[in-house]
Write a structure and sequence with these properties.
It is a single chain. This protein is an alpha/beta fold. The protein has one domain: Rossmann fold. It contains 10 helices and 8 strands. The chain has helices at about 30, 35-45, 50-55, 60-70, 105-115, 120-125, 140-145, 165-170, 180-190, 190-205; strands at about 5-15, 50, 75-85, 85-90, 95, 130-135, 155-160, 175-180. The strands form 2 sheets. A 6-stranded mixed sheet has the order 4-3-1-6-7-8, with helices on both faces. A two-stranded antiparallel ribbon has the order 2-5. α4 (about 60-70) runs parallel beside α10 (about 190-205) and α9 (about 180-190) packs across α10 (about 190-205). The protein is globular and about 45 Å long. This is DUF6884 domain-containing protein. InterPro entries: DUF6884 (IPR049251).
Length: about 210
């Protein structure tokens, strides 16, 4: 159950669709080099916005709507995003447009880049501050967390996804899985790419957040 004073964390993923996509958007090498990143941030300064507003993919926008609804319901909720360019970032982090993705990348690449961006360690430190964590992550983004591996058993984890997602989740009593596969897609009339956002928003709208 979710108590009124529980601290809730939603973790989503970045999307290729962005508010701005200039031809000179930042590359992986530019973001990874501190000097080049600073130069690029100055070059693209007029395109700088909060991560919440930069990503325009449908799952992200649905997650944002659910996040805002939870705030309106008086929930103590926070929203962070796993970015293939920046790492694990809070929704109000200022970012510039970039062209880096985990999608369709090899397991080796995703795990390696995840560690380079310190995503697994940042995740472990972050979740200690919350009572309940909701993961709206596909296979590649779970791999960026270096899953499957043991995680803090004092935090309730709720993960949505298909069969591939379930395979990557640690076998722990504090981890709950909500199916978001083809069957659920038919039920909700939603494509798999944004189904997790649809389910989360519906749960919030119907006040079914307590699991």
């Amino acid at each position: 159950m979710t108590n009124s004073d529980d601290k809730i964390l939603i973790i989503g993923s970045c999307t290729s669709s962005k508010k701005y996509s200039p031809l000179n958007e930042a590359t992986e090498d530019e973001l990874d080099d501190p000097i080049l990143r600073k130069q690029k941030e100055e070059e693209l300064n007029r395109y700088t916005v909060d991560a919440l507003d930069m990503y325009q993919g449908k799952q992200h926008t649905l997650t944002c709507e659910a996040f805002k609804l939870l705030q309106e319901q008086g929930k103590n909720v926070d929203f962070w995003i796993i970015s293939a360019g920046y790492g694990l970032i809070k929704y109000d982090t200022k970012i510039i447009p970039y062209d880096v993705t985990f999608a369709q990348k090899s397991r080796k690449y995703v795990k390696s880049r995840g560690k380079l961006l310190n995503i697994p360690d940042d995740f472990d430190k972050l979740i200690k501050h919350y009572d309940k964590v909701i993961l709206l992550l596909g296979k590649e983004y779970l791999l960026s967390l270096d899953f499957p591996r043991p995680i803090d058993e004092n935090v309730e984890i709720i993960a949505m996804g298909g069969k591939e997602t379930k395979k990557l989740l640690p076998d722990q009593k504090n981890i709950h899985f909500i199916p978001a596969g083809k069957e659920e897609g038919k039920k909700y009339g939603a494509a798999l790419i944004y189904l997790k956002g649809v389910i989360l928003k519906k749960m919030v709208e119907e006040h079914q957040f307590d699991l």
